[in-house]
Amino acid sequence: MMSSSYVSRVNQLDAGKLDDEIFRIFSTKIHESSQLFAPGVIERWSPEINASLRTIIWVWTLIRGKSTLGQKLLNLTYADLTKNKAVLLVLMSVVPHYLEEKYLDPNRLVSARTKPFVKYLDVMSTAVSALSFSNLLIFLHRGSQPFLRERLLGIRSCNVTSHVFRDIGYSFMIRELLWHGLINIFSTGLPMINYHYMRQLFRKLFPKSKAVINETPSMDLNTLCPYCNLTPVLPRHAGCCHLYCYYCMQAHFTAAESFDCLACGAELHRDNMKAYIVLPDHK
């Protein structure tokens, strides 16, 4: 029988994932409220805002208690967590993220003065990533301290109450397996379905009266593509008076050599596809 100090690896990893999700929820709400400010104001101070938010969350949970929000949800806590270690844990959890968002984000401009510091910081980030991967391998072997900061500070997770394990029933596991199986089938099979061809087969079951072909199409401000119902982009026609977007018509011809016009029912062929050209008025 496992001792009461045993903490499953899944619980420890899930606690870290829950902490990240909780931070992401608060961060999303802050960025949603940024719509009230001028464009670019929040993005400019985004690293500082995120660092402040992380600090508030970690101080509220670790300094006042001995567990993060994710650990509390899973009935976990840190063993041997002193005030000094808690402060160091907060710094090790906030500062690396701030430096990465501030200087290593490719979407942010870096001044010429800070380029040497950025190169040094990039090397340090790579080294920390390598150490974190090594620590993960050690965690998978030993079953404790999944994060590098925990191993450096000598703290580990423990259960709040003894003999607390995650009880996952077979019905839950079967539902999860079925759900992931269906997702894999849909993600693999749906892109292989030719929706344009299926739509043409369906329309042939309910044919419309054929329109007179070889009409000259015309375009004005009210002209809409029969497929996407938007103003035609790079307009094309293939025998009737209706104009399609280039992509909409090409997608149909990629699916089949011919198709019936969605507006008038005229049979359009790939060889008749032409670009719409506005002829100058002769006065």
Walkthrough of the structure:
With 283 residues, this protein is mainly alpha-helical. The protein is 52% helix and 6% strand. The chain has a two-stranded antiparallel ribbon with strand order 1-2. A two-stranded antiparallel ribbon has the order 3-6. A hairpin with a 6-residue loop joins β4 and β5. α3 runs antiparallel to α5. 17% of the residues are buried. The model has no long low-confidence stretch (mean pLDDT 81).
Calculate the mean pLDDT score and round it: 81
The structure class reads mainly alpha
Treating each run of at least 4 consecutive H or I residues as one helix, how many helices?
Answer: 10
Q: Give the distance, in angstroms, between the N- and C-terminal Cα atoms.
A: 98 Å
What's the gist of this structure?
The protein contains 10 helices and 6 strands; from the N terminus they run ααααβαααβααβαβββ.
Layout of strands and helices, then pairs:
Elements lengths: L8 H25 L7 H4 L1 H18 L5 H5 L2 E4 L3 H21 L11 H28 L5 H6 L2 E4 L10 H20 L5 H11 L30 E2 L8 H10 L2 E3 L6 E3 L4 E2 L8
Antiparallel strand pairs: 1-2, 3-6, 4-5
Helix pairs in contact: 3-5
Features:
two-stranded antiparallel sheet, 283 residues, mainly alpha, 52% helix, elongated
